[in-house]
Amino acid sequence: MHTIKNNIGVLSIFAVWRALWDPDQLETDIMRILNAGQGGEGLNGHSLDFLTSEGIAGTLTEAAYRFCRYTPGISVTLSGTGNHAHLMENLRSMEKAPLPESALKRLRALFGNVECVCGE
Fold it and tell me: Which domain, by its residues, includes 39?
């Protein structure tokens, strides 16, 4: 990766975007991804459920912070909150272990080609 090779820092500014805590927004964003032809096979509104139902993460928010925290090339993951309890919860999420490789592989298969959505 160019940034790693050249020692360039990268900020992850939308680690947790609205779709990860608003099911209606998640459905809207997945439809946008599917309409753009960028989603992996089997992508639907419940594609992220495996993260919590299989005990990989307690919440989608936790999974997102862990994903960003351990992604090579991301130097800093921002936690946008003015709420002390949310901040502490976010920090606890980032202190947990990386997501298992099987989960990362599944996420890459579903979302690896997505360029049409970002945090809002």
Answer: 2-111
